[in-house]
Amino acid sequence: MTPTICVCGCGLPVAVCMGTGREYAIIEATALQFGVTVPAVMAKGKACPDAIAARHVAMALVREVPDSTPSFAEVGHVFGVDHGTVMHACRKVGNMPAECRAKRVFAGLLAQFNNEGGAAA
């Protein structure tokens, strides 16, 4: 279920913050693949390696799923981080070897969102 308030913590309605609930769907699907919660993906810090990997993958997916291709700053707004953090996450996912679990999750979810027109099942 897509929330009416943006998950980034800005307190704005989702339609005002980024225009769609697409980001939440990506974050939710990524959290499910890594076996963590959405709040764990959104949390800042280094408490759980799976949550960190999920956060990096989700940031990269929000940039790659071809609905609107938000800027690094816009993705950062959703996650409550600056654009440099998003750039680091995207670079990290891009440089992962193909056999890495996070890279496989990224590729699988990217294909899923591309096939479904940006909406997860």
Question: What does this 3D model show about the protein?
Answer:
The chain has a single domain (20-115), classed as DnaA protein, C-terminal DNA-binding domain (Chromosomal Replication Initiator Protein Dnaa, Chain: A, Orthogonal Bundle), CATH 1.10.1750. Helices cover 61% and strands 0% of the residues. The protein contains seven helices and no strands.
- What is the overall number of helices? 7
Number of domains: 1
First-residue to last-residue Cα separation: 11 Å
3D shape? globular
Summed up:
With 121 residues, this protein is an all-alpha fold.
Outline the secondary-structure elements:
Elements (H helix, E strand, L loop, with lengths): L13 H4 L4 H13 L3 H5 L6 H16 L7 H8 L3 H13 L5 H15 L6
Which features characterize this protein?
mainly alpha, 61% helix, Chromosomal Replication Initiator Protein Dnaa, Chain: A, 7 helices, 121 residues
